[in-house]
Amino acid sequence: MNPMTSMPETWGALGSALLTFILFQDMIRRYCPPELQRYLEKWSIKISGFFNPYIQISIHEYLGNHLKPHKAYAIAEAYLSANSSKDAKRLKAEMGKDNGNKLMLSLDEYEKTTDEFEGVKVSWISGKTSPPPRPMLSYFPDPDKKYYKLKFHRRYKEMITGSYLEHVMKTGKEIQARNRQRKLYTNGHNMSCWSHIVFEHPATFKTIAMDPEQKEEIIEDLLTFTKSRDFYARIGKAWKRGYLLYGPPGTGKSTMIAAMANLLDYDVYDLELTSVRDNTELRRLLTETTSKSIIVIEDIDCSLDLTGQRKNNKKEKTSEETEKCKKDTKEESVSKVTLSGLLNFIDGLWSACAGERLIIFTTNYVNKLDPALTRRGRMDKHIELSYCKYEGFKVLAKNYLEIEAPHPLFPKVEALIEEVEITPADVAESLMPKSTKDGPEKCLLNLIQTLEKCKELKDRDQQDRVEYLEIK
Ligand SMILES: Nc1ncnc2c1ncn2[C@@H]1O[C@H](COP(=O)(O)OP(=O)(O)OP(=O)(O)O)[C@@H](O)[C@H]1O
Ligand SMILES: [Mg+2]
To answer: For the region Disordered, what residue ranges are annotated (predicted)?
Structure first.
């Protein structure tokens, strides 16, 4: 440039160069074929990259075709939650682990924060990309995909891609472990993705009323599973275990799932099959589940009539079954999940991509299930939850009334409860104080009354049966 050129002339020249560039770009957009446009765009990025001294690294929320959540994104989010509050102006707040008064902060969308590492400044920017619109109006819109962008001077490339990112991952993981809040995920209400709430269920194995030996066996089985990572790797199987919980309504199937999650410190994914459009969506939802989790499909016998699709010999359901299933399959018409889609997943085809998961099915009618669904290897352990007997009653008496044997009324309860079929839910209900004045005695007497009524009804049923047989 001529040193004699005055400042206004220089600005004028720069301004007209910029204008020419903008007009040139506009011309390209209007008149060039798309191939040439892409080619020119590629070169313009290269040229601007040559002059731009900054490097960007993106960490996306999902890997690839958003099949799987990207762990690094969650870790970076945790790291930034501790750092971003320093200078970012727009933050998101979420409830912390203890659900106390402390809120966890993270960067809001399109917000920027800076960080410093060994004297080097970097910046982090949060953003999101929206999926392209679907050709047809859809009930299941694809979710936005979020990302973080790390920006730094190219002079520090080696240090940032090496020790700084290592520091981010290490610190982020520590923060994650400190803040880990277990979650209950659900895909209900026609959602094509998981939504979650904090999982806070008070059930533990201590409060579950069931045969003590059976309880110990289940706990042992679960703990062995969690310690078997190397074993599963050695035998070449996905690190998962299937449980089938069956028994009449109110015997504690759902309660046991909560107790399992509390014992193992796992998240729970409550999969509502009737809300899943097809096998592809099922596969996506399942691959989005994280390690250390329980995937639950409640009332599998009612889920999309999976049983019948394979057997083709639908048994007639009783009116009680039909009523329950009707309630559960309201959206059946939009779901095309098949038994084979579900079996493929259980067999480890997709579950192999992330370890340590339990898959639990519950049913009231185990005999109605397709044997392909329940065979060992798929559902490794079958657990029957049955009517409440004396051992179960003692647990409930301790939980609800804080009383233990020996007690003068216990023998009476023992004699009656062994004779009748009463669910733990009904025993629990009878033991609940009905007014603030009700003491343990009153509640026990209430239970005895209920048990006597059950016995009377049972005897009457038997009598009816005898009479019926005699008439026949
Ligand atoms: N074995 C049990 N131990 C302790 N409490 C129990 C047990 N079974 C049932 N309950 C009590 O009864 C209530 C209902 O139990 P739960 O929902 O676990 O039954 P379920 O077997 O899942 O029934 P459904 O087949 O209708 O889903 C629970 O909230 C719990 O308070
Ligand atoms: Mg249940």
So the answer is: 311-330
User: Cα separation of 62 and 111, whole Å?
Assistant: 20
d(CA 141, CA 403) in angstroms, rounded, equals 54
* Annotated domain spans of the chain: 47-131+140-180, 185-310+318-384, 390-471
- pTM of the predicted model over 0.80: no
In 32-70, which residue ranges form alpha helices assigned H by DSSP? 34-51
209 lines ligand 1 (CB under 6 A): yes
- How many residues are recorded in the chain? 472
**Interface pTM, i.e. ipTM:** 0.98
Q: How far apart are CA 313 and CA 304, in angstroms?
A: 15
Q: Quick check: helix, strand or coil at residue 169?
A: helix
Cα 68 off chain centre by: 13
Q: What is the reported pLDDT for 152?
A: 94
What are the backbone dihedrals phi and psi of residue 303, each rounded to the nearest 5 degrees, phi first?
-80, 100
Q: Peptide bond before 249: cis, by omega within 30 degrees of 0? A: no
Torsion sign over Cα 251, 245, 248, 270 = positive
CA angle 218, 351, 290 (to 5 degrees): 80
List, run by run, the mean pLDDT of 10-residue segments along the chain (472 residues): 56 73 73 76 75 90 74 91 78 67 79 92 90 62 83 94 95 83 82 83 93 94 94 87 93 95 93 87 86 91 60 47 53 67 75 77 88 82 94 93 88 92 93 83 91 82 54 50
Indicate the SS3 state at residue 373. helix
- The CATH class that applies to domain 185-310+318-384 reads alpha beta
**Residue 68, phi-psi category: left (phi > 0), alpha (psi -120 to 50), beta (remainder):** beta
| Residue with CA at minimum distance from ligand 1 atom 31 | 425
State the Cα–Cα distance between residues 339 and 373, nearest whole angstrom: 8
Closest residue by Cα to residue 201 from 149, 292, 262: 262
Q: How many CB atoms lie within 10 A of CB 229?
A: 12
Q: What span, in angstroms and rounded, lies between the C-alpha atoms of 394 and 206?
A: 12
User: Do 185 and 195 meet the contact criterion of CB atoms below 8 Å apart?
Assistant: yes
Distance CA 403, CA 300 (A): 37
Residue 205: name the closest of 227, 181, 222 by CA. Answer: 222
Nearest residue (by CA) to ligand 1, atom 30, is 425
Can you give the pLDDT at residue 463? 60
Going from the C-alpha of 304 to that of each of 113, 127, 276, 419, the distances in angstroms are 48, 38, 10, 37
400 Cα to the center of ligand 1, angstroms: 14
245 CB under 6 A from ligand 1? no
